[in-house]
Amino acid sequence: MKNPVINLRVAVLALVAVMAFTGLAEARWGQPASGCNQNGGRGQGRFAGRGQGNCQTALADLPREDLNDFEKESLLLMREEEKLARDVYQALGQKYSLRVFNKIPRAEQRHMDQLGFLLERYGLEDPIAGMEPGQFSHAELQRLHDQLVAQGNESEVAALKVGATIEDLDISDLNSALASGKIDNQDITRVYENLAKGSRNHMRAFAGRLAAAGETYQAQYVTQADLDAILASDHERAMAGGGQMMTGKRMTRVHGPGQGWRSNQGNCAGCLQACTSRSGS
Fold first, then answer.
1. Contact partners, residue 55, CB within 8 Å, separation at least 6
2. Residue 98 has pLDDT above 80, yes or no
3. Are 64 and 118 in contact (CB under 8 A)?
4. Which residues contact 181 (CB under 8 A, 6 or more apart)?
5. Model pTM greater than 0.85?
6. Per-residue pLDDT averaged across 230-248, rounded?
7. Is the pLDDT of residue 61 over 60?
8. Which residues fall within 8 angstroms of residue 79, CB to CB, at 6 or more apart?
């Protein structure tokens, strides 16, 4: 018969070890030892999307800097542009039982949540507050939404080309904003880089489905050379807080000061990309 005193001592020692590890993890990474909340946490405030809680914490750790006019206009546009993607994909998903139109809209919602967090952080009025799916305050995006839904309803191939068109537009606008030299706030740069990564992954998904159907997509917004380079490169799993990009085959430093060569496991600088990398986003 086992000694109950010994069993109690073992249990106490195990509990002490767990508490010590938790404290060490919090001291090292500034977050609980469970790491980033990827699968069920909810953020705070009006833009609390599923799995966004610790992602927003990672952004909140970055400095809150003054916004220039370009940054304000860009944030407002990208908030609606990500809604455009979500709404069009949801509309087409009601007609076609294609996995991309079930999976990618969830990623677009997370993109909207990240931009919504930045709007709230900087006290900007949300241009889509109270709007139903398919409604936009930006007249050109309203026109584009209606046009793309109509085109996508013609056939599955047409719907896939609509998806590629939207990702093409997103990549072009995000790249232009990042290359403009007018965005210098770290949190905006972080979100835009992750959104661009997600859009490149979505482009690969749509192009892959088109290729399987014997069709191709021709670039309309980025250059054809840039599109070809995206399609020839690996799926991007995560972009770490210090500016490293991980692909399915390797991990490569891309830019900026590093945080070491950690992935998002146990590195809460990676909370943002951990959430955006799910579902191909």
1. 36, 37, 43, 114, 271, 272, 274, 275, 276
2. yes
3. no
4. none
5. no
6. 61
7. yes
8. 112, 115, 116, 119, 126, 127, 128
Copy the structure tokens of residue 78. Answer: 């990208």
94 token code pair: 């009601």
Q: What whole-number distance in Å separates Cα of residue 184 and Cα of residue 51?
A: 27
